[in-house]
Write a structure and sequence with these properties.
single chain, Tetraspanin/Peripherin, Tetraspanin_EC2_sf, about 70% helix, transmembrane, 8 helices, transmembrane helix, membrane
């Protein structure tokens, strides 16, 4: 500030530059996520266009999720970066209040899921059947195949879930050549015919056979993933902490920087008012003798004019007396 000596500031450079670096890194990450989401959405719709019909088409579309998270991160961290760079308290308040709201939503959402775990798992299973099983051949192959291969599972609750798919179901009205089959990713050994090459018909006629005689995984992916989460709680906790710590740090640093900037502004205005009052007092002390001198000169002029009038009158009187 102009009133203070150079380097005399209440704004901590450590707080400011830590916030600048952190928001810059997340700003770049947000821009990358946004760009990746846009690219994935465009490339996916070149092959198959699937119109958004309900909220689940948005939630379970990874490209839209990437775009949404990337855009939110980009905007929030931009406010934090520019606010810290320019010491703008409005942008900084938008930054840390947005982080605070997101953090509260995460905590409340996680708590509700833990409290109502069974209900949440049941609802999730129903939604996944509608999104990933029903639309498997149309749009959702990659994600479902990844989970079935990664977690050695088949379907959502079990391999019989594939009866809900229009191409795999065993109904008499199904004309498909893969009737009563399941995806190759359900097979225990999809490449048993030729190593490294998946046999896409390894799950043929599985839905019409007994569970004991099939060569596919019979356990659903939701129970498998839930069991995996229970056995890896330390990893889940570490991920939760890794997400929460930057948010809490951003909230604290943003609030601290705002307080320091406001204190510095208050100090600046206080110094400016003090200097203004001192300047007025000095100017008043200088102005008083000047005014007195002006009044003295005016009085002298009036006195001289009066004496001149008397002299003029006396001269006129003497002339008339002589005449």
């Amino acid at each position: 500030m102009g009133c203070c000596p150079k380097g005399d500031t209440l704004v901590s450079p450590v707080v400011k530059y830590v916030l600048l670096v952190g928001t810059l890194i997340h700003w770049i990450c947000g821009a990358g996520m946004l760009a990746l989401g846009i690219w994935a959405y465009v490339e996916k719709n070149k092959v198959f266009y699937h119109a958004v019909q309900n909220v689940y088409d948005v939630i379970f579309d990874l490209s839209i999720v990437l775009m949404t998270f990337g855009a939110v991160m980009f905007v929030i961290t931009m406010c934090g970066f520019v606010g810290a760079l320019r010491e703008n308290t409005i942008l900084l308040k938008i930054f840390y209040w947005s982080l605070a709201v997101i953090f509260v939503v995460e905590v409340v959402g996680g708590s509700l899921v833990l409290i109502f775990k069974d209900r949440a798992v049941g609802h999730l299973s129903g939604v996944l059947k509608e999104v990933y099983v029903r639309d498997y051949q149309d749009d959702q192959e990659g994600i479902m195949d990844y989970f079935q291969e990664k977690f050695a599972c088949c379907g959502v609750d079990g391999y019989k879930d594939w009866n809900k798919n229009a191409y795999f179901n065993c109904s008499g009205r199904n004309p498909s050549r893969i009737k009563c089959a399941v995806p190759y990713s359900c097979c225990k050994k999809p490449d048993e015919m030729m190593p490294g090459l998946h046999n896409i018909l390894c799950g043929a006629s599985v839905l019409s056979q007994n569970a004991s005689s099939v060569k596919v995984y019979t356990v659903g992916c939701v129970p498998t993933v839930v069991a995996w989460l229970h056995s890896n709680m330390l990893i889940i906790g570490a991920i939760a902490i890794a997400i929460a710590v930057p948010q809490l740090l951003g909230i604290c640093l943003g609030k601290l920087l705002v307080n320091q900037i406001e204190d510095q502004r208050s100090r600046y205005f206080m110094h400016r008012n003090v200097r203004g009052r001192a300047r007025s007092r000095v100017e008043g002390d200088i102005e008083l003798p000047n005014k007195f001198r002006l009044y003295t000169d005016a009085a002298k002029a009036h006195v001289n004019k009066a004496f001149q009038n008397v002299r003029d009158w006396r001269g006129n009187y003497d002339r008339r007396w002589r005449e």
